[in-house]
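== Item description ==
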Amino acid sequence: MRIGFFDSGIGGITVLHQALKYLPNEDYIFYADTSHVPYGEKPKEEVRDYIFRAADFMANQGVKALVIACNTATSIAVDDLRKKYDFPILGIEPAVKPAVQSCKGKRKKVLVLATSLTLKEEKFHNLVKSIDHHDIVESLPLPGLVEFAESFEFREEVVVPYLREKVSALDLEQYGTIVLGCTHFPYFENSVREIFPEKVDIISGSVGTAKNLKRILEARNQINDGTGDIVYFQSGSKVVDKETLVSYKKLMGRLDELEL
């Protein structure tokens, strides 16, 4: 049986990339809901419908576990998905806890970069409330980074000016840790580093999700001896054209180059 990965678009590749490091011999299904990306700026109920359609599709593929490799989808629907299906469902959330811990004693703040919908959700606010006891967590929506990623626009000469404009009202020296709270954002780590002070830490939740996936499968005695094969789907249709498959491989290569 394969492990399912789901995202609104190509952002979930950053989480799958980490899973391949910890579980290289598993086989995977990656589902990108490209017909409806981006999720982060759409109405909540509309996005919930897309999420459940995708989860139903993955369940019909017979996956042994499903990773919701999308911060927005996790914040909206992961609890309800777990009630519906009997296989493990893992979500991803902004890495606020390790960010706050890393800033303790440094007199520095945490800045969470994410989509508007993730930052509006009660799940995110409850997470921050449970951890941020010294009022050091701030947030900034960056929907343009999702659009750049889905357009395969990674050039720093395009991305960096966008980021500079979005953070122009902030005192960048006050931040000790930047949280990449959307799975699309790790593609732009170099651009983010370009505009923040040199010693700032930049983290995401992808590694923690991959480690948790391995732990759960080991506990269930469901570790397979596969080949690391990946089958790609886009909004329910299997990807067969070579150009698209090559583009996914290039994304994996980009993440290798970034050493993520």
User: Anything to note?
Assistant: The domain at 96-203 is CATH 3.40.50.1860 (Rossmann fold).
